[in-house]
Amino acid sequence: MFSPVASLLLFTVVASSTDLSCSGPDDYAATSAFVHLVNIGLLDRDDKFYGNVEVTLLASERIDRNLYEQIHRIVFTRLSGKEIEVITTNRASRKECSESGVEIYLISQHLGSEGSLE
Q1: Does residue 47 have a pLDDT over 50?
Q2: Residue 85 in 3-state DSSP?
Q3: What does the pLDDT look like over 11-22, one tens digit per residue?
Q4: Max CA-CA distance within the chain?
């Protein structure tokens, strides 16, 4: 049986190895994208609090000992139901999601569906 200290150490190691993604709706990439979309008039401040925010980590590549390049797909659903989709890139470490600025790419249109060339 594990002692409380051993259990805590084991939990800390597991949590730190999986806690890198920074992929929550209140994390750095999503909040940075939200602020930029508000500033250009595509979202209202209330949209984040009453709409839906979906964040998906698309890629996380280690580029240095404790530095990762992350790419997220973020979909903001307005209260009206209209979706605003962006792709973000930024650098993160195990201690900090904001090791660089966030580059934000607005997706203006989807062409076709999965498996088709429409």
Answers
A1: yes
A2: strand
A3: 333 333 445 769
A4: 59
The three-state secondary structure class of 31 is helix
Q: Which residues touch 61 (CB under 8 Å, ≥6 apart)?
A: 68, 69
Q: What is the pTM of this model?
A: 0.76
Q: Is 90 in contact with 70 (CB distance < 8 Å)? A: yes
Burial 84-107 (b: 16+ CB within 10 A, else e): bbbbbbbbbeeeebbbeebebeee
Q: Record the tokens describing residue 71, joined without a space.
A: 């790419």
- CA 9 vs CA 3, 12, 13, 15: distances in Å: 10, 5, 6, 10
